[in-house]
Amino acid sequence: MEGIGKHCCINFSTFLERGIERDSESACVALERMRVVYLLQASFRKECISDVDTRPAYQNLRQRVESSVATFLSHQLWKPDLNKNQLREKLRKHLLE
After folding, report:
1. What is the pLDDT of residues 43-72, one digit of tens each?
2. DSSP code string of 23-91
3. Which InterPro entries match (predicted)?
């Protein structure tokens, strides 16, 4: 980790050259901690999503939503000047019904 911190400080030093008075070593440690936390969270999210994808309840819900969206969109007339925000709002209300 020390090598990464030194590398970080070298890259981070350009921000410090603009007259901002900060402890560059503390900033590098903070950045490294943030990076590690981000990587752990990303890994955790990926594992959770892959677990949820395989559950029958999720598959059923996904199929129902996709079917409902397809039905809703099949009744919409496409125009180049279509207001997409209004269409999204109509779709949201349709899904909540």
Report:
1. 888 888 887 778 888 889 999 999 999 999
2. -HHHHHHHHHHHHHHHHHHHHHHHHHHHHHHT-HHHHHHHHHHHHHHHHHHHTPPP-TT--HHHHHHHH
3. BOD1/SHG1_dom (IPR055264)
Tokens of 12: 């981070």
The answer to whether 27 and 12 are in contact (CB under 8 A) is yes
When pLDDT is averaged across residues 23-44 and rounded to a whole number, the result is 82
What pTM did the predictor assign? 0.49
Domain coordinates in residue numbering, the chain: 1-54, 56-97
Tokens of 81: 């000047």
